[in-house]
Specification:
mainly alpha, two-stranded antiparallel ribbon, 10 helices, binds zinc ion, zinc ion binding, HNH endonuclease
Length: 265
């Protein structure tokens, strides 16, 4: 069996995750939501119709991070941008030419404007090196956020505000009826394993142990946290573990998840 371990550097990930919480819980940027979730975008339609490893949340994190840094670059001077980017590259142990050497190698007695040009070019240089780092921050942030079911519920409520407006006439291949996405034909093994692992093999309503280690004969149900009838979708972020009883008794108009987590001691 393949084990998927990666090296994480949480230092820049937690501040990023904190921004994401603000965006999702405060909904201050409601008017921009369609920039993140556009029904006209084929990748968005694929993600809501069939579980993809690169989820809606990955894409949201990616766009958000790019916008955050664009905003940051607009607000501060070149020197602060350079400081921040060099700090990130150092944290991730990415080698780069330090700014003094870079400036010296281009021009060391130029006018101020030339100096600014040099800094600008240097920043562009750093940004190239940052592309894979930003992607890593996206993956790290996803790993943290996927563990928080209430966050995922809030996130999917935002997505639902978009899918509810999608009409069957416009997207007949993925919509069951207006505002309701078709059920995915199957849930892949990798997703079942991830949900089972995250939810510790327990029903998220009653806490019943579904692992089969101590109690036999329990059925495992993979439930859409936001039901498809309420604008839910088939992205991995919208699934949880339930026992048979609670999945069958949960009607298509109920949204239930759990904020219970096991403590270490
Ligand atoms: Zn249950």
């Amino acid at each position: 069996m393949m084990e998927s371990f990666k090296e994480f550097k949480y230092r820049f990930t937690y501040p990023n995750v904190s921004f994401i919480y603000e965006t999702v819980f405060d909904r201050a940027e409601e008017e921009y939501l369609e920039d993140y979730f556009d029904p006209e975008d084929g990748a968005f339609r694929l993600r809501i119709s069939k579980p993809q490893k690169d989820t809606l949340l990955h894409d949201f994190l990616r766009v958000r991070l790019k916008l955050d840094y664009e905003y940051f670059e607009d607000k501060v001077g070149y020197s602060e941008i350079i400081d921040e980017y060099e700090k990130i590259l150092n944290t991730y142990h990415v080698p780069f030419l330090p700014s003094k050497e870079f400036e010296g190698s281009v021009n060391d007695d130029g006018l101020l404007k030339e100096c600014e040009d040099t800094k600008f070019n240097y920043i562009q240089n750093l940004k190239q090196l940052l592309i894979p780092i930003f992607e890593q921050i996206v993956q790290e942030s996803f790993t943290i956020l996927f563990g928080d079911r209430m966050f995922l519920l809030k996130f999917n409520e935002i997505v639902a505000s978009i899918t509810k407006k999608m009409r069957k006439y416009d997207y007949p291949e993925i919509m069951k009826r207006d505002g309701v996405v078709k059920r995915a034909t199957y849930i892949p093994r990798w997703l079942k394993d991830a949900i089972f692992h995250r939810d510790k093999g327990k029903c998220q309503v009653c806490g019943r142990d579904l692992s089969g280690l101590m109690f036999l004969g329990e059925e495992i149900h993979y439930d859409h946290v936001i039901p498809l009838n309420l604008g839910g979708n088939n992205d991995p972020t919208n699934f949880q573990l339930l026992c048979k009883e609670h999945n069958l008794s949960k009607s298509g108009t109920q949204i239930i998840t759990s904020e219970r987590y096991q403590t270490y001691w």
